[in-house]
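Dear colleague,

Following up on yesterday's call, I've attached the two folding results inline so they're easy to grep. Please treat them as preliminary; we haven't cross-checked anything against experimental data yet. The first protein's sequence and structure tokens come first.
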Amino acid sequence: MNQLTDMSKCTPASALSTGRKKGHWCLLPYDAEGVSGTMLGAGELTDAPDVTLPLGVSGWHGIHIGFWAPAIHEARPTIIKLKLTGDDIFHRIWHQPDNVSWLQTELHETFWTYADLTDRGLVIGQQKKGFAAALHIAYVKLEPLSPERVAALEQDRGRTDTRRVVALNDGCSFIHRDGCTTEEELLEQVELYRHSDVGTVSWAVNYGETTNFPSNVGTMVGTGYDDFETIGNRSMVESLRTLVEQGIVPFESAMRHVHSMGIKFHAQFRLGMLAGEIFTTEAQGAFSRNHPEFRIVDRDGTALPKLSYAFPEVRNLMLSLIAEVLERDVDGIDLCYIRGPMYVGYEATVIEEFKQAHGVDPREIDEKDERWIRHKAGYVTQFARDVRTLVDDAGARRGRKLEVAAQPYWTEALNLHHGLDVRTWLNEGLVDTLQMGPRDEAMLALIKAHNCELVANVGARIPENYIKFGLDGYDAGAVGIGIWDMNVPQYNPEHWEILRNLGHRDKVEAYAQSLPKMKSIKLKSVGEMDFCHTTNKDTPEDWPPEMITQITCG
């Protein structure tokens, strides 16, 4: 094991400083249990340039990173950007301390990747756009791999049967957070899938009629705005505009990149269509602004700020948006019905058609009457039929089948309540895959009876859920495990260790016995800061509480 603890060897030397200095990395001597050296640090606003640490080894190694995420005064996130020389795209390590520690601070050690390090160095970068982040790297540990381990690693990387993870991406929050303005920064979202169990990326391209790409049908996020309610919204809109001005369409760049890695790409459509705005820069498009007559109407007659799928014009708007995206090289589409109900209300045409079918005004019966629920669901089912035809026609033109996936809820009753008649979708073959939590035996039996594929979706993104829904999904015959907005947890080392291996059932079963945890090493000192000694010991009434001396002046 080779441990590099002297970060002052990074190049160029002109980017380093022994004190805090704008545009420079700060070199900080440190001492911890079992390791000491000089760490490399940058504050949130330092704006430090990329530097390279010579590794001085050859052959295959596992790379482990030791870092400090101070949680003394504030529990602020650490983001470390890493790549090897010769690579274009950074990988990220993200860590959010749980809370402020008054008694100790520590180094964390996490595995990063396996690679052949012959003639290669480690490039270290800072997150400087969007929400900038501090980072402090203490050491790099290099673990040499035997020829047998390398052979096993390469064999595993060549497998396709374990590529069972569907990585969902909302298409906007990472721009909001990271402020990416280059294609390389954009592709940081998907590059880490290269040697993982991710087999499909489902990338949201719209939010109702609002899109995150220049559209001839919808309205791109931020169109017509020059005032923003939050820093994040400004970052998202201005970054998106910058990308588009360079001819970069985010979902198309991501699609090309994942295709180059042998990963499928689905365009995800979020189907609820907002029709009003207060502050948001992404809610309302031109169609909804110009057509208030297509709004959902509540039982009491109030027009709501949302468009109704009871109107063919509204359904056709979404169909036209889907058709526009199907002109690209997508492998299928993902209909995200859970973003979001309601889809139909008490519009005049809905009331009249219900009267004709059932001889009664729906406002005079219980709103949970099954006749009324199924009547409203019929409009959404018609949309699903039209989508199937649209996708099949596009597939015929391209000479291959394009997939239709859908995200409903996990029970038939819950789906019907929200206007989603999944039983009819299955009876008519309107979907190839259902992505949902494998919670309801009746729903699972319905899916199996119609030879539809199941992807077990994980909503709440915590390690315990990855494991539970993964194993439950495999038991239910799921072909994959879907992770909602995986672009959020995938940079957390303790999450990514599970997520990247989620297609290996044996590994998931092992994680069920013992969750992966980063190694922690107690720090003794950083620079002149002492973390070994405390004050306020045994004070009357335990106040002020005992704490390391570094934070006693506040």
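Below is the second protein, in the same order (sequence, then structure):
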Amino acid sequence: MILVRTLFLVLCFGLLNSAAAQLRTPSDFEFEREGKKYFYFNSEEKLIDNENNASYYREASQLDNGFWRFNDYFSGTNKVRRSGIKENPNPLFTGDFRGEVTTYFESGEVEELAFYDDKSFQIDDYLLNYENGKTKEEGRYVGGMKQGDWKTYYDNGKVKSEKSYEKGLLSGTVQEYYESGAVKREAEYMILDDQAVKTGEEIHYFENGEIKSRVFFQEGNAQGKHAEYHDNGKVKITGQYDEEGNKTVIWKEFYDNGALLEEKRYDEGVLVMQGKRLHKNGNLAMRVESVEAGGFNGPYMRYFENGKLAETGKYREGKKTGVFKTFYRENGEVKSAVNHITGEKKYFNESGEEISMPHRADEIPEKHKKLIKVINKSLEIPEKHKTINRGVYGFTVTNEGKITNAKVLTSADDFVDAAAIQALNKIEIAPAVKNDSPVEVKNAVVIFFDKESKKYDMVLGNYYVDLEGSDENFAVVEEMPMFKGGEKELFSFLSQNITYPTYAKDQGFSGVVYINFIVDKSGLVTRPRVLRGVHPSMDLSAMYCIEKMPAWNPGLQRGKPVLVSFNLPIRFTLR
């Protein structure tokens, strides 16, 4: 069962016992000296609990009317980063700005200029700039909602998009442009039942002016024929939508030379028939007996481009069953035989002799501890720099088994980020293998830092071979991300890892915290943020739980893992 993006969980947390250790509270991030309050941020301007690791800091002084004048500074130069007035100086309290709030680059140039009324609604003209002084985005707010014409720009001053809003909702024509000035997308929006929906024809263009795709919409639903094209003008995908906007009848995909890639049949948006898939040279790539309710059923065969058998097995209701065999490309000998009923696994060399399971980086399961032990051993963090936080770090494993290009996906704080990157770049592991040859792969690891621990908990993503390396972020895909085990296991995880903060409970705070996060190609939960909060302590509790999540099953688009943005509402109910 696919977990829908807007899954709503009604969780009565007042009855739950938490398994989460060291739950953070707003006071953990607050420091006070000489009547002023101080707060510290990492390079991503995320609040941290360690002033030694800060890239920015906030100094706040209380005014006679009870409000707080705050100034944020760059730690290295003490130049002003942001200034304004808030009802509460703690950055975890959002939506309480008053009057003008200005944000600066370290050069002194204005980055952002915003205005708020006495109810903290954003009003009047809004301006966002690039560091070179050119405008990045401009428009106007009325009562906290975008209104009228809005424009975004490239850093060279050329228009990037033109949009129109009505009470915060897209309305009218949307135009998007390439940096060259060529049209990138044209679409029309209308407001229906308090939602912005597409209407009329939406067209995407390549930069050379050739049409990339065109779809007709009626009241938000795609209608009629669908067509996508390669940049050489040849057809890429053809299909059709029914009146409800669901895929229907035959959909075909083609290579850029015009050769058929695959053919599928849909009924009310559900895949009901998977035809054969072909290689670009016309040889058979994959054949499956049947598809029911979107899942493979019956015999399955996959082939190499040279026509030799690559894999055989059988599916039942979308899951592998019985013995699946893989074969060597050149001589056709059995490479592995895995029984998905008994769990028995056998591996063979090219001469047909049984061997022990090869160590392959792209097959390290989440429970595998070797790499985690190596990372822990390599991590060196002095006591004064330790923190309570979570970091997510991406990296590349080269075809020689070296870890390179380690980068921060979600920052813990600047010092421990640097320590984690340094530790990763020291490591060598067995390379990933595809088609019997070592290949380069990308992946990520979540590290849960804990001031009291000598070793840190970690979660590895499932290693995958990603030769295209696309970073496009999707909101809806053919197969949405799913918590392993489905909704039941997700509910169980949340119930065991969320605490209803005592202060919030005692004060009678309740409501829904909306969390947005990205499920990456390995299934890791990254970049969590509060879309709409209730109270900082409740927001933190929800975020802390999301940060502890294990890897999900990633979202798939045309059979390939992709980045998917996911919204999760979490309700706190007093009992």
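For the second protein, one point worth flagging: Residues 1-21 have pLDDT under 50 and may be disordered.

Best wishes,
A.L.
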